[in-house]
Amino acid sequence: MIDAMMRPRGCLGDRCQNRGRFVVRHFRLLLSVVVVMLLGIMASWGPLSAVAQEASPAASPVALSPLLQQWVDGVEAGDGDAIAALYTEDAVHEDVPADMVVEGPEEIGALVSGTVEQFDDVRYEVLAAHESGDLGILEYRFSATDLESGQPISIRGVYIFELAGDRIRRSADYYDVASILAQLGILDLGEEMAAATPAP
Question: Are 178 and 100 within one domain?
């Protein structure tokens, strides 16, 4: 009686074990199909060494459109007015990790200048840039010294832009908050996480 109570509902004798084998067999089959598909996609990219070489920031300087170059220059300078001039009147900016949305060019400019004012030695290095039609993507490294703690920080992130002609309609920033907090000494990531987090 106790043995019957310990079995999962719907399991009678060997029937439950057979169901488990059935699930494992189908999972293996699905996993095999996914691996074959991924290998096929990777093979279509060509030799992996060529892909890695093309993505290397040291291989060639990153060329930006005039709009995105002005944006990078404005961020490094902490020039909120210059940033505001690059956005449309109905523009929206989202700081995704902070769960913050600001609307309008003036608010976006104020956010940038207010953020940069908290740091010294600001460097905004573009690691890669991709633009197509009304979409722009910047992979970046933000390096600076926190004025309050005196600690240097360096984080990687991604900016996504929706463009409207020669202006920015929407931007979203994605970065690693835990890495910032760890570098400022506010969060202890432990040895394993610290080893896995890219060093500044």
Answer: yes
**So what's the pLDDT on residue 187?**
85
Give the number of other CB atoms < 10 A from CB of residue 83. Answer: 27
Cβ neighbours around 145 below 10 Å, total: 13
* Cα three-residue angle 193-54-33, rounded to 5 degrees: 65
Quick one: which of 128, 146, 140 has its CA closest to 176?
140
Distance CA 127, CA 55 (A): 9
Question: How many domains is the chain partitioned into structurally?
Answer: 2
- Other beta carbons less than 10 A from residue 187's beta carbon: 14
Domain assignment of residue 61, yes or no? no
Give me the DSSP letters along 176-189: -HHHHHHHTTS---
Whole-structure pTM value: 0.64
- Alpha-carbon distance values, 150 to 1, 54, 119, 174, 185 (Å): 68, 36, 9, 24, 11
Contact 91, 104 (CB under 8 A): yes
Mean pLDDT, residues 88-94: 98
- Contact residues for 19 (Cβ-Cβ < 8 A; gap 6+): 11
Greatest extent of the chain over all pairs of C-alpha atoms, in Å: 77
